[in-house]
C-alpha cells in the first residue's frame, strides 16, 4: 500500500476538551506566535468605516451575550415575558454577509454549547428555508440587507419573527419594524444582567463529537446537506496550518503569514474557507481581518491600499498559466494555492512554505498530520505521479452528514473522507487536481450540484430532458451549462421559427436565475440536443457532454460565449 503523509508532523497537542470559543478566547497554544497574543492589534476591521474590534470587544461580546441568553432568558421587544430561549445543542442560524460581529455571533453561541449553521446571504427564500428546516434552527441572526428573504424563509420553516435578531450596519440606520431585537441590544442587556451563567467545560474527548457547525455542502452529489463538524475539527485545522506557518525558515518579513499583517476578508464567513481559515486561523495567528461585506473591484483596490492589506485569499482555482502571468505583473507578491472542502473542515493542502511562487498548477502540499490515498479505478493505491481518486484522513475531518445515512456512507468511512476529486501526488506531497470524479461543479469556489439545477429545469414545460455540466473557465473555475432536449411543443416552435430557440434559451436561463443563488445560474448557457447520452441503467453520461462542451468551446460553437472578467 502507498500512502502520502503531509510532511512536518506531528502537530503539537490538539485539545479535545474545549469549544472553539474557549480555544480562541481563553487558551494559549504553543503554536500561537507570542506576538499574536498582543492585544494591541485589532482582530477585525470594518472596511466601510474603519471601526475595529480586538480581543476585549470580541471576548466581551461573546461572553456576555451568552450570559444573557442562558441565565436571564430572551427579552422580546414586546416585553410580554422573559422566556428561556436556547438550550445546549440548539441550532442558531446566521444569514448575513461578512460583518465584524460574526465572531461574536459564532463564539457567543458556542459559549452556550449551541451550534452554528451559517447560510449564504444571496440565497433565495426556498434555499434558506431548506437549511433552516434541515437543521431545526431555533434562532436566526439576520443582516438588514437580507431581511425580507429571511422573514419569508423563517415563516416557511416555522420560525417566528420574534426569533430573528438583527445586526446593525455601521454607518447605516436600520429602519425595520417588528418584534426584533438587535445584537447590540442583546449584548447591552446582557451586561446589565446578573452574571450567573457558568460556562460548561467539556469532558476529555468530548470536543471530538460535540457539534460546533452544521455547514452546508452538496458532498459528492445531490442537494446541499448539513455537514456535522465537531469543535475538535476546526481547532485541529487551525493548529495544522499554524504548525506549518511556524516551520518557515526565511526571515520574518519574507514569510507568507505574519502576526500584525492585515488580511482581506471578502471571502464569505458562511463558507468553510472564510469560516475556518480566515476567521479562526488568521485571527489565531495574529492577523487583522479587514471585513468586507460585498466584493466590488475598484473599492477593494482602494481598501487594499488604505489599510495596507498584505494577504488576499481567493477560492477559485488558479491555473499554471495564470500563475505565471500574475507573477510577471506582481513580481514581489507571494502566490500559492491550497485545497480543501467542507467535509475536511477545511484545508488538506496549503501553499508550499519554502516557495515564493508556489509550484504552478499545484493545489499545495499536504498539511502536517494529513494522510492521503490516491485510489486507482481498479481499487489499488497509486504511487507518486499516478492519478486516482483522492481519499484523505485528517484530524480536521467532519463526522458525517446530518440525518443522511446514505450520503454519509458515500463520503465518510472510518475517519477517511472521499473527496470525489481525481488527483496525483508527488513524492514531496504536492497535490495536483486532474479532474472532478464527483458530479459537483466548482464555481468561484462554491459547490453547485448539477442534479439540483436539472430538477429545477425539469419543471419548465419546454424541457423534455436535461443534463448540466461544468464548462471550464479560467476566471470562475467552471460555469454551469445545460444540455437540453426540448419538449415536443418547444421543438415544433423552434422548427417553425428559428428565432424561437434563442427565446427558449433566455427563458430557461431566467427560470434558473429567478430561483437560484447567483453562482448557480446557467452562465455557460443552454445548448439544445436531440438526446441526453445515458448508460443502459439510465445513468447520465455526464463526462460525454462535458467533453462535448469543451470541444464546442474550443471550436467557438457555443450559443453563449462566456465573457472574460477582470
Automatic annotation (TrEMBL):
Q: Which PROSITE patterns match?
A: AMP_BINDING
Q: Which residues form the AMP-dependent synthetase/ligase domain?
A: 89-314
AMP-binding enzyme C-terminal domain location is: 452-539
A GO molecular-function term, please?
Answer: CoA-ligase activity
- What is this protein's record name? AMP-dependent synthetase/ligase domain-containing protein
Gene3D superfamilies in UniProt: 3.30.300.30, 3.40.50.980, N-terminal domain of ligase-like
InterPro entries (alphabetical): AMP-bd_C, AMP-bd_C_sf, AMP-binding_CS, AMP-dep_synth/lig_dom, ANL_N_sf
Amino acid at each position: 500500500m502507498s500512502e502520502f503523509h503531509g510532511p512536518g508532523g506531528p502537530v503539537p497537542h490538539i485539545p479535545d476538551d474545549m469549544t472553539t470559543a474557549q480555544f480562541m478566547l481563553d487558551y494559549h497554544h504553543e503554536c500561537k506566535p507570542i506576538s499574536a497574543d498582543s492585544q494591541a492589534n485589532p482582530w477585525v476591521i470594518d472596511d466601510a468605516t474603519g471601526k475595529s474590534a480586538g480581543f476585549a470587544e470580541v471576548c466581551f461580546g461573546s461572553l456576555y451575550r451568552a450570559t444573557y441568553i442562558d441565565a436571564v432568558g430572551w427579552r422580546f421587544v414586546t416585553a410580554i415575558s422573559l422566556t428561556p430561549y436556547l438550550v445546549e445543542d440548539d441550532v442558531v442560524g446566521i444569514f448575513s454577509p461578512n460583518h465584524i460581529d460574526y465572531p461574536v455571533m459564532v463564539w457567543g453561541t458556542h459559549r452556550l454549547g449551541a451550534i452554528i449553521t451559517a447560510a449564504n446571504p444571496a440565497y433565495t427564500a426556498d434555499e434558506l428555508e431548506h437549511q433552516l428546516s434541515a437543521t431545526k434552527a431555533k434562532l436566526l441572526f439576520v443582516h438588514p440587507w437580507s431581511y425580507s428573504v429571511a422573514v419569508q424563509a423563517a415563516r416557511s420553516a416555522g420560525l417566528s419573527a420574534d426569533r430573528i435578531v438583527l445586526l446593525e450596519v455601521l454607518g447605516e440606520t436600520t429602519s425595520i419594524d417588528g418584534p426584533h431585537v438587535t445584537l447590540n441590544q442583546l449584548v447591552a442587556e446582557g451586561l446589565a444582567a446578573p452574571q450567573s451563567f457558568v460556562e460548561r467545560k467539556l469532558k476529555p474527548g468530548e470536543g471530538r463529537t460535540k457539534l460546533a457547525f452544521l455547514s452546508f455542502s452538496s458532498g459528492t452529489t445531490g442537494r446541499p446537506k448539513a455537514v456535522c463538524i465537531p469543535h475538535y475539527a476546526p481547532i485541529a485545522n487551525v493548529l495544522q496550518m499554524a504548525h506549518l506557518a511556524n516551520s518557515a525558515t526565511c526571515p520574518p518579513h519574507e514569510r507568507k503569514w505574519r502576526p500584525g499583517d492585515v488580511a482581506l476578508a471578502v471571502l464569505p464567513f458562511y463558507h468553510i474557507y472564510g469560516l475556518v481559515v480566515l476567521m479562526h486561523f488568521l485571527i489565531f495567528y495574529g492577523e487583522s481581518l479587514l471585513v468586507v461585506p460585498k466584493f466590488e473591484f475598484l473599492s477593494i483596490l482602494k481598501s487594499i491600499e488604505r489599510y495596507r492589506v498584505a494577504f488576499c485569499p481567493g477560492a477559485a482555482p488558479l491555473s499554471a498559466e495564470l500563475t505565471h502571468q500574475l507573477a510577471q505583473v506582481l513580481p514581489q507578491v507571494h502566490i500559492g494555492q491550497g485545497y480543501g472542502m467542507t467535509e475536511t473542515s477545511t484545508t488538506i493542502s496549503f501553499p508550499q512554505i519554502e516557495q515564493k511562487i508556489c509550484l504552478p498548477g499545484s493545489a499545495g502540499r499536504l498539511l502536517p498530520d494529513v494522510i492521503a490515498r490516491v485510489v486507482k479505478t481498479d481499487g489499488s493505491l497509486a504511487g507518486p505521479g499516478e492519478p486516482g481518486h483522492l481519499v484523505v484522513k485528517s484530524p480536521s475531518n467532519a463526522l458525517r452528514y446530518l440525518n443522511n445515512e446514505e450520503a454519509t456512507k458515500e463520503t465518510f468511512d472510518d475517519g477517511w473522507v472521499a473527496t470525489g476529486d481525481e488527483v496525483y501526488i508527488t513524492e514531496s506531497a504536492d497535490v495536483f487536481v486532474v479532474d472532478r470524479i464527483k458530479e459537483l461543479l466548482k464555481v468561484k469556489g462554491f459547490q453547485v450540484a448539477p442534479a439540483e439545477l436539472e430538477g429545477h429545469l425539469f419543471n419548465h414545460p419546454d424541457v423534455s430532458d436535461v443534463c448540466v455540466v461544468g464548462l471550464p473557465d479560467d476566471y470562475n473555475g467552471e460555469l454551469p451549462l445545460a444540455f437540453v432536449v426540448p419538449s415536443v411543443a418547444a421543438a415544433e416552435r423552434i422548427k417553425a421559427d428559428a428565432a424561437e430557440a434563442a427565446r427558449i434559451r433566455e427563458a430557461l436561463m431566467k427560470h434558473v436565475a429567478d430561483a437560484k443563488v447567483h453562482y448557480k445560474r446557467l452562465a455557460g448557457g443552454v445548448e439544445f440536443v436531440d438526446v441526453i447520452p445515458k448508460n443502459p441503467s439510465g445513468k447520465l453520461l455526464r463526462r460525454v457532454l462535458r467533453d462535448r462542451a469543451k470541444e464546442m468551446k474550443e471550436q467557438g460553437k457555443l450559443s453563449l460565449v462566456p465573457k472574460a472578467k477582470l
